[in-house]
């Protein structure tokens, strides 16, 4: 990136590289990292330090950089990286045979939500037990109200 900007004639300010981990359970062993490692619990401290550092780019410089990234061909230079080398080849899938049981949209949505929650079996059992207990408590209250009325 630095070479790309210097070829275009722009002075590159000092860049501070960070590697941010949002998962609080991650463990990192690094003796001398080449980038600053930033954990989730230190994000507020890092962001408050950013406010105290003087700006390295003006508003117009930021707009220029964004335009260079969005339209690299307009400058006559090659983009700093070629994303085509990172694309995975698309394999043509064989046409699937129709199943005897077609899943409805509701079942597909439920399956997608379950995968997104990413809960273990013990967590699902606890969740179902809590829902059952809640239903029992509500039925007990309804019974109490009907009997006492």
Could you walk me through the main structural features you see in this protein, from its secondary elements to its overall organization?
The chain is mostly helical. The protein has two domains: 2-83, no CATH class; 105-148. The chain has five helices and two strands; from the N terminus they run αββαααα. It has helices at 2-7, 43-52, 59-70, 105-117, 121-148, and strands at residues 18-21, 36-39. Strands 1-2 form a two-stranded parallel ribbon. The protein starts with a helix and ends with a helix.
Give a brief description.
The chain has 149 residues and is mainly α. It has helices spanning 2-7, 43-52, 59-70, 105-117, 121-148; strands spanning 18-21, 36-39.
Number of strands: 2
Q: Mean pLDDT, nearest integer?
A: 75
Indicate the low-confidence ranges by residue numbers: none
> How widely separated are the two ends?
76 Å
- Tertiary shape: elongated
List the helices and strands and how they pair.
Layout: H1 2-7, E1 18-21, E2 36-39, H2 43-52, H3 59-70, H4 105-117, H5 121-148
Parallel strand pairs: 1-2
Please name the defining characteristics of this protein:
two-stranded parallel ribbon; 5 helices; 2 strands
